[in-house]
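Why do we care about 3D structure at all? Because function follows from shape, and shape follows, mostly, from sequence. That is the central idea of this module. The next example makes it concrete: a single protein chain, its amino acid sequence, and then its structure expressed as tokens.
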Amino acid sequence: MRRSTRKATVAATEAIAQPPAKRTKKDMGCGAGAKAPAPTMATAVKVHPAGGEMPRADSAYDFNKVPGGFDPADLQTMTKGAEGTLDYRMSFFHKAKPISPWHDVPYKASASTYNMMCEIPKWTRAKFEVAVKEPNNPIKQDEKKGVVREYKHGDMLFNYGFMPQTWEDPNTVTEDTGYKGDDDPLDMVEVGCRAMVCGQVAEVKVIGVLAMIDDGETDWKVFCIRVDDPLAALIDDVADLEKQLPGAVSAMREWFRVYKVAEGKPENKFGLDEKCMSKKYAQQVVEETHDFWAASEEALRARAAKLGGGGA
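And the structure:
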């Protein structure tokens, strides 16, 4: 198992210390959603994020070849099944072409901003998530033992989702935490004023990151804010977030710490001395996980081309 090549350490990066606050009983919450096509063919070089044996011809890289590229205004969704059931799926299309919200939506919106897809809107609790192992990665509601899941701890305090074209590689030990990646896209915590909609893509500024340790795996929680939020002009880094919304970081960290307790599970832990790291550090996490995703995508496409299963 290789180690991460990211060299930023706690001592070498700016951080806002967040000593454990009083445990709050606030929650995460929800909406519904789904995701689109994913390249999913296991490779000997590296296991692809989506796993499985589902060759496909198109890839996230194809957007780089389309004049004008990806435009959120051209994103459409289609649902099937009733919300609150195991059959519910939200699929995605760009200019009428089926896409994967994980692999086909660019991770960057501009040179300094990123794309986030919302899975669980703030003030809701239904546990919607991208189906990373299904073709086209629709959004579905998570289930356990045949029952759809909601957060028993309560509603979300923030808009929750993921950053496309990123992957927390389970074959890599993160040097700064000592744990491997959780095999999912990077989790995004949007701290703005307004609730998003499940399946919505938003342009965001990355402002900080927490290193949550969940079941022995690194599970980064990247804090961000939508560029059109009323507070966006005032918040550019985690220090600004603390200035504009005092206590917000501690409240969100405590939500992540205790939300599983209501399900009879132990509290989550955090690396990096429980500090919320700076924007600079968070951007390094984003770039590293994007590189993991890109390497896996390249391996998949090379494998698919060799086997005649597709590829650009």
